[in-house]
Amino acid sequence: MLDSRALLRDAGLFAKKSFGQNFLVSEHVVLGIAEACVPAAEVGSARVVELGAGLGALTSALVERARNVVAVERDRDLVPVLRQALEAAESSGVLRVLEADAQTIDLPALFASMRGDGESARVLCGNLPYQITGKLLQLAVHHATDIERAVFMVQEEVADRLVARPSTKEYGALTVFVRAAFDVSRVLTVSRGCFHPSPDVTSSVVRLTSLRPARALETPTFRTVVRRAFATRRKTLRNAWRGLAGTDPRMAEVAESAGVSLDARGETLDVDAFARVAKALEESGHGVVATGEEPGETS
Fold it and tell me: What is the pLDDT of residues 52-78, one digit of tens each?
């Protein structure tokens, strides 16, 4: 495993708080993430795009397992260090280091540029900077049909929300939007001491397995139904969804056809229930017109 502390020291660099940089220094965690990204059955065939490759601790483990790896890093000071540390892998064609912002990459194009065939798993992974976790989860949701799985390091409380069950305080819009497209499991809990420098929070590694088909299509109607249900958690759905179907009696008919009680609160509904309500609204002629906003509320 590459020694992030030594690489920083030798290059005369320091972790940048503005980039949310906390570099993995635990070999156990690195190997656990690499195995979650590329299980034994896919060694030598999987294609992996790593977001925020940093100094290559995880990258070095991925190139040992995957057929191709694209390591995306936006910090121009780290890119030459990363390239030098993994020069052999890049020269062999297994690795491509890409200086770019993970929030704006063309993910389908990246996978299309990698060696592989229709049977090669497409994997998205990364130790996500916590200030842009929501945006990168949104990226994964938007491209759920383009990948087989995503494996992310996130703040523990975010992981709690991703795996939450209905009727719990952690369950919310983030849970619904991500679980509409993925099955979610927690792979590892990672202590602060596994990073340099140590973050102020405990972290978790989560695996998002793409669903075929998805539990729900993230249409403007679905987004609106979910957002309004959680905008004020204490409101009943009767109040939260008021006006969505024009009149209260019409909304009651829509909810009844979807098997949902308007006296319930949003936090009690599972993803399938939200999907049924959105579909019933659309079939009733009261679907929401797209506004051009970003898909999915992941904050």
Answer: 999 999 999 999 999 999 999 999 999
pTM of the model as a whole: 0.92
Query: 220-283 in CATH: which number?
Result: 1.10.8.100
Token readout for 253 is 């008919």
Asked whether the bond before 197 is cis by omega within 30 degrees of 0, the reply is yes
> Which value, in Å, is the radius of gyration of the alpha carbons in the chain?
21
Q: Choose which CATH entry (2.30.40.10, 1.10.1060.10, 3.40.50.150, 3.40.50.300) describes domain 4-210.
A: 3.40.50.150
Taking alpha carbons only, the member of 50, 55, 53 closest to residue 6 is: 55
How many contiguous H segments (helices) and E segments (strands) does the chain have? 13, 9
Q: Where are the domains of the chain?
A: 4-210, 220-283
3-state secondary structure of 113: coil
